[in-house]
Design a protein that fits this description.
Largest sheet: 9 strands, mixed
Shape: globular
Distance between the termini: 22 Å
Order of helices and strands: EEHEEEEHEHEHEHH
Helix content: 25-40%
Oligomer: single chain
Number of strands: 9
């Protein structure tokens, strides 16, 4: 549901981090925000709800300008994880252009991961989006803890779906940028099919991702 103003020649994209309570959605965004260069991101905004919170920030507060003149801004949101805030989840998912599902790697959270992913599918449908068509990546967070689902089990379960899967410890910073980079790349591919970002506006995939992930250390390898 890309927000595109043809008259103003600008586009606003929205990425949403979704998952069960305490899976590390907020930690991912806090860490991502810390890793990016200050001139490339806006301030964090925190919307507190009882026992939970939603945060977001503008990744490109002053717009990325493609060679052809198209201006692009990207907003990144989390949703509250608790079931009682489901109305807020739906509201945040409105007009989403891509989703990162943050699962909790602890074996004790397997059922919660399943219920949350099912809830994501239902809520996407509720707001008029198709989980099979929207850019989607999965991150199994909290790999730094004990008693977690094995990497073999994660990959054997999810890789046959074709959905990109990442292992992460958001608390330590590992896997955070890789998850975001993949989601940004798949979002670019989805938009390019409709708006011809490279052909019409001169913005190729790698440049788009590099502009989003500007930071002081090496950007991870970008894979199609």
């Amino acid at each position: 549901m890309i927000e595109y103003d043809e008259l103003e020649n600008r586009m606003i994209l929205k990425l949403v981090y979704y998952g069960p309570a305490l899976s590390g959605k907020t930690t991912n965004l806090l860490r991502l925000h810390d890793l990016l260069e200050k001139q490339g991101r806006g301030d964090l905004t925190v919307l507190d709800t009882k026992d939970d919170r939603t945060i977001f920030f503008d990744l490109l507060p002053f717009f990325l300008v493609a060679p052809g003149g198209l201006k692009i801004k990207l907003k990144v949101f989390t949703v509250p994880g608790q079931v009682k805030h489901d109305a807020t989840r739906k509201a945040v998912l409105q007009r989403a252009d891509g989703v990162a599902f943050i699962a909790d790697s602890q074996l004790s959270e397997t059922a919660n991961n399943f219920e949350s992913f099912k809830n994501l599918e239902e809520n996407l449908q509720f707001v008029g989006l198709d989980i099979d068509k929207i850019p989607l990546v999965i991150q199994f967070n909290k790999r730094d803890l004990g008693n977690i689902v094995s990497e073999h089990d994660v990959r054997s379960t999810w890789e046959p779906t074709g959905i990109p899967v990442f292992l992460s410890s958001a608390l330590e910073g590992s896997g955070v940028v890789e998850t975001f980079t993949s989601l940004a790349g798949h979002t670019y591919d989805h938009i390019d099919k409709k708006y011809f970002l490279k052909e019409t506006h001169g913005l190729d995939r790698n440049t788009f991702i590099q502009q989003l992930t500007r930071k002081s250390h090496v950007i991870p390898a970008i894979k199609p």
